[in-house]
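Project standup — Tuesday

K.O.: blocked on the structure for the chain from last sprint. Re-posting the sequence here as requested.
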Amino acid sequence: MATFINEPSHTFNEYLLIPGYTPITCRSEKVSLKTPLVKYRRGSEEPAISMNIPMVSAIMQSVSGDRLAVALATEGGVSFIYGSQSVADEAAMVKRAKTYKAGFVRSDSNLSPDHTLHDVLELKERTGHSTIAVTEDGTAEGKLVGVVTSRDYRVSRMELSEKVSTFMTPFDKLVWAREGITLKEANDVIWEHKLNSLPIIDENGRLCYFVFRKDYESHKQNPNELLDSHKRYIVGAGINTRDYEERVPALLEAGADVLCIDSSEGHTDWQRFTLAWIREHYGDTVKVGAGNVVDAAGFRFLAECGADFVKVGIGGGSICITRETKGIGRGQATALIDVCAERDRYFAETGVYVPVCSDGGIVYDHHIALALAMGADFVMLGRYFARFDESPTDKVNIGGTYYKEYWGEGSARARNWQRYDMGGDKKLSFVEGVDSYVPYAGSLKDNVAVTLSKVRHTMCNCGAMSIPEFQEKAVLQLVSATTIVEGGAHDVIQKDTSPTIK
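H.V.: unblocked you, prediction finished:
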C-alpha cells in the first residue's frame, strides 16, 4: 500500500516571519548577504566559492546567457549558463563571460550598411539600445564601417527604406581606439572628445567592444562583484546526464568555475553516474551541484554521491506544469524545510556542509527572505531574471506595454529532453512547461538592489546581521487564508495600481 503523508505541504505565501528585537547596531546597510555556493568541511576550510549575494540564475534558454552572467557576477551572484544548446555554443558563452573586461561591452546591436532605417527602428525597439554598430557583415565581430545613433536620423523626414550607409556616421569621422587600451585610457578619450561611446577595434579594423560614458560611474560602484583569482567574473554552467563526458571538459576548458546538473528530478541513478564520472576524472577540483529533490532522502542521496550543493524544488516554477502533468512535486516551503533539516543532520554527522539552493516558488521579493529563513543558502530564480535587459530574449510591445519572452525548458519551444531524461528515447514525449511573457522590468542592477534592500530590512526586523544568524533567530508561523488577504491592501480604493510583484 502507498505511504500517505496527511499533513499538507505549504508554499512560501503561507508563512510569515515574527519580528524580533532589533538593536541599534542592526542597520540594513551593514547586513552581510555572503553565503557559500559549494560544500566545505567544518573548521578546516573555507568554501572554494562563496557569493556576496544569495542569488543564482536558472539554467534556462530564456534566462541565462553570457550577458546576464556578467551582470549578475557584477552584483555578487552567479549565473548558470543554459546547457540545452550544443557543447560548442555553451562553451563559447562561458568563454565570453570569463573573458569579459569590465567596461568593455560587446555589441549586441549590429547592422550592415545595406540595412534600412526600418531595420534600425526595429532593432532599437527590440533591444532598447540607441547605439548601433555598422559592420561590413552586420555581425558583432565584423569590420567596423560606421555607427548609428539617434542623432543620425529623423524619422519624420526620412523614408523607412533609406539605407543605413546614407545616414550613419562613417568610420573616417569616428573617434575610435585600438584593442589593448585600458579602461582608464578609454574613459579619458571619451571625456576629452565629449563622446557618448567609444568603439574599440583590432588591428584588422574588426569591432571588439564599445566603452560607454554612462558606464563610467557604475564601474566604480560594484563592491560586491564576484571574481576569481585572476580577477575574472565567476561563471556557472549547466550540464545534463547524457553527454557529460564531452560537455564537462569543454566547459572547464572555457573557464567555467562551477557546474550544475540540470534535471527535473535528482534522486536518480543518472545523477549518481554523472557525479561519479566527474569525481573519477577530476576528484574534488570540479565543483558541481545536483538536483532537484524535495525531501530528506533525496538530499542525503545526492550529498553521498558527492554533490557540492543540492537544489530543492519540483513543480513550483511559474512556467512549470510538472505537477499538473505528472502529479509529482511538493509545496516549496515544506520541501525546503525538510531538506534543510536533513542538511543540518548531515553536517552534524559528517562535518561536511552541503549548501541548499531553493529553486522555484519565488513570487514576491519577501519570499527570498522566507527561503533564507527556512534554511536555504541561496535561491535560484528564472522568471525574476527573465524580465531584465540582460536576459537573452526579445523585448516585445503588446498593447502598449513592454514584455520579455519567457519559456520553460520543458516547453515545446525549448524541447530540452535531456532535463527530463530517464534513459528512454532522445525526445520530449510531452511538455512540462509553458511559453509565456513576463513584464519588462529594466536593468538587472537596479532591480536586484531593490530586492536585496527588502531582504536586508527583513533580516534587521529579526535582529540578524548575516544569513546564518537570520536562520538561527527566525521565527516563522503558518498563516490562515484570511490572514493572507489581510496582508495586502484591502478595503480601500488605491491611487497607485502599479504592480508590486517582483
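K.O.: great, moving the ticket to review. Residues 130 and 150 are 6 Å apart (CA to CA). The first helix runs from residue 66 to 75.
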